[in-house]
Design goal:
This protein is α/β, with parallel strands linked by helices. It has five helices and five strands.
Length: 142
């Protein structure tokens, strides 16, 4: 598994459950959960290229904007709804969190540690929010 938060997330997900990953990217986490935990996985991703990569991995992913809501998804239809390093990119975070709790029994939310020493040190010397492999955007464009 690629990112460090994926190990934490996977430890929280019970085998054989239904999982929805909002902002699932290229489907790496979903594919791992399917293979190793036997979950029934679905994802929603806004970026078309990432949707295609996720589908190529064999996971079911739909292109959509989670800020527009999850109205097509019935109440409590998933055991887990995951929002991994995506909350800070939403325009309506409270609405997204409320929708997560409506469609799932459990919500798992992770976000980047902008307080990590390496980020703070970079900010100290450059005077700007750092750009990384995971966050290649300017602070105002994330």
């Amino acid at each position: 598994m690629g990112r460090s938060d994926y190990a934490i997330i996977s430890s929280l997900v019970e085998p054989g459950t239904k999982v929805l990953d909002l902002g699932c990217g290229d489907g790496e986490l979903l594919a791992w959960l399917v293979e190793n935990k036997g979950v029934e996985a679905r994802g929603i991703e806004i970026n078309r290229a990432r949707v295609q990569k996720a589908i190529a991995r064999g996971v079911t992913v739909f292109q959509g904007d989670i800020d527009e809501g999850l109205a097509d998804i019935p109440d409590q239809s998933f055991d887990y709804v995951i929002l991994s390093q995506t909350l800070q990119e939403t325009r309506h975070p409270l609405k997204v969190l409320q929708e997560m709790l409506r469609v799932g029994r459990h919500a798992i939310v992770t976000f980047p540690n902008f307080g990590h020493w390496s980020v703070r040190l970079s900010h100290l010397f450059s005077g700007r929010a750092p750009r990384t492999r995971l966050f290649p955007y300017e602070w105002y464009d994330s």
